[in-house]
Write a structure and sequence with these properties.
143 residues; mainly alpha; flat
Length: 143
C-alpha cells in the first residue's frame, strides 16, 4: 500500500501567504497596489499591513520586477543588439545622427525664443519711450 501524507488544513493555511506573494509578483506592481487598496477598502489593517510589507520588501520602489519587463523596456527603446553587426552599426549611427539633429533643433528653438523675447522687449521699450514722449509733449501744452 502506498502511504502518502495528506495535506492538513494547517499546512495549506501556512503556505497560502507565500502562494499569494508569488501570484502577486507574477502580475507586477499593479497587482500589489490593487491588493493594498482592496485591503484598505475591506479592512484597513490588512491594507496597512500590505503597505508596510511592500515598503519593507522594497516592492514599492523597484523599477522592474521581472526579467520580461526589463526586456520589454529595452526593446521599446531599441537598445537590444540584433546579432547582425552591420545592422547594429547602422542603427547606432542613425540614433547618433538623430540625437545630433535633436540637439540642433533644440538650439534652433532656443534662438527663436531669444529672438522673440528680444523683439517683445524692444516693442515694450519703444511703447514706453513713446508714452514718455507723448506725456512730455502734453505737459507743456497744459500750462
Amino acid at each position: 500500500m502506498n502511504w502518502q501524507p495528506q495535506e492538513t488544513p494547517m499546512s495549506s493555511v501556512a503556505t497560502w501567504p507565500s502562494q499569494a506573494e508569488s501570484w502577486l509578483d507574477q502580475r507586477g506592481k499593479g497587482a500589489w497596489i490593487a491588493a493594498m487598496v482592496l485591503g484598505f477598502i475591506f479592512f484597513w489593517p490588512i491594507g496597512l499591513a500590505l503597505l508596510a510589507y511592500m515598503i519593507w520588501s522594497k516592492r514599492m520602489f523597484n523599477g522592474c520586477s521581472t526579467r520580461a519587463e526589463r526586456g520589454w523596456k529595452a526593446r521599446r527603446h531599441g537598445f537590444t543588439p540584433t546579432g547582425n553587426t552591420a545592422f547594429d552599426s547602422y542603427k547606432a549611427e542613425t540614433l547618433r545622427r538623430l540625437e545630433e539633429e535633436q540637439k540642433a533643433f533644440e538650439e534652433f528653438l532656443a534662438r527663436l525664443r531669444e529672438a522673440k523675447d528680444k523683439s517683445e522687449f524692444d516693442q515694450f521699450m519703444d511703447e514706453r519711450a513713446r508714452k514718455a514722449r507723448d506725456g512730455a509733449e502734453a505737459a507743456p501744452a497744459e500750462s
